[in-house]
């Protein structure tokens, strides 16, 4: 008989057993890399900006030449030239000199500040400066944004559009990312059908739900489809999937003996490590390894399967991809009392009202529609003696 | 001279001028539809579940037959049969009868509750029931989850993995989604280069950043690339892009006359509606229409361009796709004072500390690296007389 673990123990055990499963790296063009996971720290190969630049339209100056300048007594500087955008400022500014420059223009040697054009007047070769500037004012130094050798993105970062911009600024147009883990999804249950159901049958939801959730986490998916609760069929499905995939998810069956059958099959082909997590929904969750591949047995009810995916399988996927564990997306206060939960950690879909307060979405077992209206979920710890209206709760994103 | 608008006015004006630009619909397989936008309300074609089901393993009963049953005086019912998973329960339960059933099994006619197997004993054809159940207990009625005719997903919903599950439950494997709007991205500036920059030149960041951000919002992108600040070149780029794309984004140029040039070009080819939004960063933002296509002029600095994309262009894209406007992702308290902001609405990247408090990420103009570390941004309204440490601020996601 296998123990029932609590969720943290289950996640730790899975991480420990699967720690060796690090996906290989491959190169990805940053144009196509959003959502992919960086497989090594990215260190800046250069300074950004690569040269000292102004941040205003005006004149590059030696700040000391402007000290004491004001509306009544402007500083007078000789205009030695104009720095054109995109051109090398290949001269040196001497004391008493300034150079016309546009925002983003390259500062000439010697210059250490810029004066905004609004604070100047020019007359032929002379520039009158009505406001003093401090050294460093209105300029960005080479490397101010990103210095050469700086770690800009860490291993395990899921690349966002914003990251793409940072990489482009460094001239990095290709990055090393983890190959997408391949997840095989098997749906089991004598009542589950792929097409239109007859009376007593139901549609296969989990193949779609768990495949989409896996893809959203950056995995490729093998949809094995629905199989009946016959031991041989499930065993063949698992055998086939561990050959082709990096991990296998079996959901169902909901009939009485089916869950023990899945444990038996895993033990026949490999080893089952636990059967049961003290969480609601999600208690009849199974984990084992077959031929070095993790096999997850999820409940048949789609909502329960979803929570186990989100809280157990997703943490496994993140772990092998070096993605930090999930964190709450925010917090809010409860709009109603929640009764005690009898020793199991409980997860409850919620929506937010107009005041961003938490409205729990109570559902019967087997309900799926709540996933179309939920804006997140809350976690009620084990052995909570009920929660009062007004309690501040952390909110997790779906 | 065109007016400077505030952000709300700018967004309203853009929505008004582009309201006719509704993308056509196309069919998408739900396996490939995550991130796509639903183009019409989805109404349930059937009940989910499609039949009355149990939510426990045990016996289907007529609740009234169990009234008064307890540990000392169990109810005695005749077992008329077993309902197999996935099979039609094609008989009618009469008073005094019950039928063996597994979780998810179809309730026979007449039955209105189920008793958990733990509360029963069976002996041949007889079942002893030690706990009474109320009508409706331990069962789900047809349509309890989703009723036929119910709107399950609204037009403008961005399809998530969870929605995929709900659609699968309804047997909907194909949905009508909006065709992806095509956004053309042009980067301008004499200093901008596509390859490796010489001294004084900088890499083209905005093409990558704005393309990736557009794709993340469900658009297709035409990367026009970098063009110099020559009027003819920009004009040709705009002419070309309005032919091929649904909307055009020009970022830059940062040199003094370039912004006016963009306005001139839009007015030559079409009509510019505003030049300037009272926001920081993002003041020199331009909007016009050329041949019925919106043209957005964004600042050249990547961080400023990003904020204008996020707050102006993204709202336009959401608007034509019927996606509700962006909302704050949460809130937190400020860890430091913020000085007054001189009449412009200001946006500031932030990170959250260990206590989920807001740490503003102050940056000089022209800085991009903050986008790799920011966890969101805050909005400081116009004419704020400074904000004190401890103020509760709404947090927006990047």
- SS field, number of helical segments of chain A: 7
Into which percent range does the helicity of residues of chain A fall? Answer: 10-25%
**What top-tier CATH class of the largest domain in chain A fits best?**
Alpha Beta
Q: Please tally the β strands of chain A and state the result.
A: 26
Low-pLDDT parts of chain A are none
Q: Give the chain pair forming the largest contact, with residue counts.
A: A-B, 91 and 92 residues
Structure, briefly:
The structure is a homodimer of 398-residue chains. Chain A is built from 7 helices and 26 strands. By secondary structure, chain A is an alpha/beta fold.
Write up what this structure looks like.
- The structure is a homodimer of 398-residue chains.
- In chain A, the strands form eight sheets. The first copy, chain A, has a six-stranded mixed β-sheet, with no helix packed on it.
- Chain A has helices spanning 7-18, 161-169, 206-216, 231-244, 258-269, 302-320, 370-373, and strands spanning 25-29, 42-43, 53-54, 58-61, 75-83, 97-101, 113-116, 120-123, 126-129, 139-140, 151-153, 174-178, 182-188, 192-193, 202-203, 220-227, 247-251, 271-275, 279-280, 286-290, 293-298, 330-333, 345-352, 358-360, 376-380, 392-395.
- The first copy, chain A, is built from seven helices and 26 strands.
- In chain A, helix 4 packs across helix 5 (258-269).
- The longest helix of chain A has 19 residues, at 302-320.
- Chain A folds into four domains: 7-23 and 180-320, Molybdenum Cofactor Biosythetic Enzyme, Chain A; 27-47 and 147-178, Molybdopterin biosynthesis moea protein, domain 2, CATH 3.90.105; 53-140, Molybdopterin biosynthesis moea protein, domain 3 (Molybdopterin biosynthesis moeA protein, domain 3); 330-395, Beta-clip.
- Chain A has 398 residues and is α/β, with parallel strands linked by helices.
- The two termini of chain A are 33 Å apart.
- The interface between A and B is large, with 91 and 92 residues.
């Amino acid at each position: 008989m296998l123990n029932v673990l609590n969720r943290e123990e289950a996640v730790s055990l899975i991480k420990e057993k699967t720690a060796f499963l690090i996906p290989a790296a491959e190169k990805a063009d940053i144009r196509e890399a959003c959502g992919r996971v960086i497989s090594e720290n990215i260190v800046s190969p250069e300074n950004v900006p690569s040269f000292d630049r102004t941040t205003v339209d005006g004149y590059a100056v030696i700040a000391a030449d402007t000290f004491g300048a004001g509306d009544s007594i402007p500083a007078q500087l000789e205009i030695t030239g104009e720095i054109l955008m995109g051109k090398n400022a290949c001269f040196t500014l001497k004391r008493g000199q300034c150079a016309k420059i546009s925002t983003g223009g390259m500062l000439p040697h010697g210059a250490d500040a810029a004066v905004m054009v609004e604070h100047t007047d020019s007359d032929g070769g002379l520039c009158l400066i009505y406001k003093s500037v401090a050294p460093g004012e209105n300029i960005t130094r080479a490397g101010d944004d990103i210095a050469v050798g700086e770690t800009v993105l860490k291993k395990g970062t899921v690349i966002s559009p914003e990251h793409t911009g940072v990489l482009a600024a460094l001239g990095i147009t290709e990055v090393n990312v983890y190959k997408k883990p391949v997840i095989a999804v098997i749906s089991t249950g004598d009542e589950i059908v792929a097409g239109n159901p007859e009376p007593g049958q139901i549609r296969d939801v989990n193949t779609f739900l768990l495949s989409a959730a896996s893809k959203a986490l950056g995995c490729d998916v093998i949809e094995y489809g629905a199989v009946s609760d016959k031991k041989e069929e499930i065993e063949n499905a698992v055998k086939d999937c561990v050959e082709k995939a990096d991990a296998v998810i079996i959901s169902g069956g909901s009939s009485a003996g089916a869950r023990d059958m899945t444990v038996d099959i895993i033990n026949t082909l490999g080893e089952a490590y636990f059967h049961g997590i003290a969480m609601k929904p999600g208690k009849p969750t199974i984990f084992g390894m077959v031929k070095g591949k993790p096999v997850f047995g999820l409940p048949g009810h789609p909502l329960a399967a979803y929570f186990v995916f989100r809280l157990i399988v997703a943490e496994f996927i993140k772990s092998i991809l070096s993605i930090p564990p999930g964190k709450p997306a925010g917090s809010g206060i409860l709009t109603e009392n929640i009764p005690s939960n009898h020793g199991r950690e409980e997860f409850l879909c919620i929506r937010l009202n107009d005041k961003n307060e938490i409205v729990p979405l109570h559902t019967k077992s087997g309900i799926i529609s709540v996933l179309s209206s939920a804006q997140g979920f809350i976690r009620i710890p084990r052995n909570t003696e009920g929660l009062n209206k007004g309690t501040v709760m952390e909110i997790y994103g779906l």
